[in-house]
Automatic annotation (TrEMBL):
This is Helix-turn-helix domain-containing protein. Keywords: DNA-binding, Transcription, Transcription regulation. Transmembrane segments: none annotated. It holds the Pfam family HTH_18. Residues 155-238 form the HTH araC/xylS-type domain. InterPro entries: AraC_XylS_family_regulators, HTH_AraC. The keyword Cell division does not apply.
């Protein structure tokens, strides 16, 4: 979990950069923020976004006096915790009002009335533990996801299928049902996430491309553009990426 407070307006609207996690954003600021998904939808208030939300670019967030607790959940546990698996999130995201009904307003009030960030984190932690009612994903799917993350997205899908004793088709189907995307797409998203954070840290693009399994620097450039709708030079200046090392320390 991480807590964010942005006094005043979000300058220039913030680009939503895809991430390999399910994002739960619980807002309680002075004004309700809005996320535009690039397809004409505007999602107001707290929301749940599936892994890779924002892919393709065009997803922006704006608001004034934004305060929120953001939770990053592994896709393999998100369904059990949230009551909705990533594959069920229409268009990649849904408002908390749509998913949890009136409880969303109660959560907002509790977060706004808390005395400290630690109190908010403790409240959210207990809330998610209480709501963990669904069974987890197949152990084979969870194992495959962990292998993809640990390998930086460089693991081949047919090798994963062989290691769990499934056919490639079965792994594709069960993985997509549990995680919300097929394994090849998941691997590509993990690889992109690793690469873009190394670029933000100031590492050489050619080295990042070589280490990340890209054919060359142009391949990396195309991948960043496909996920974000922007060039690597533009993406590395996005505010929420530049504070990731403080909000989500490794």
């Amino acid at each position: 979990m991480a807590g964010f407070r942005v006094p005043g307006p979000l300058v220039g609207d913030l680009r939503v950069v895809p991430h390999p996690a399910v994002m739960l954003i619980l807002e309680f600021g002075s004004e309700t923020p809005t996320v535009g998904d690039g397809a004409g939808r505007c999602l107001r208030g707290s929301l749940v976004a599936g892994p890779g939300f924002g892919s393709g670019g065009g997803v922006r967030a704006w608001g004034n006096g934004v305060e929120c607790v953001q939770v990053r959940l592994s896709p393999v546990v998100a369904g059990a915790v949230l009551g909705v698996c990533p594959a069920e999130l229409a268009h990649g995201a849904a408002t908390l009002d749509d998913l949890w009904g009136g409880e969303a307003s109660w959560i907002r009030e509790r977060l706004g009335g808390a005395d400290s960030w630690q109190d908010r984190f403790d409240f959210v932690d207990a809330l998610l533990a209480r709501r963990a009612t669904r069974p987890p994903v197949d152990p084979e799917v969870a194992w495959a996801w962990r292998r993809i993350v640990a390998g930086g997205g460089l693991v081949r899908v047919d090798r994963l299928a062989a290691e769990v004793g499934w056919s490639r088709k079965r792994l594709w189907s069960r993985f997509r049902s549990g995680v919300g995307m097929p394994p090849k797409r998941a691997a590509k998203l993990v690889r992109f996430d690793r690469a873009v954070h190394r670029l933000v840290a100031g590492e050489d693009a050619a080295r990042v491309a070589a280490d990340g399994g890209y054919c060359d620097q142009s391949h990396l450039h195309r991948d960043v553009l496909a996920f974000t709708g922007a060039t690597p030079g533009a993406v590395v200046g996005e505010p929420f990426l530049t504070v990731d090392d403080r909000a989500w320390p490794t």
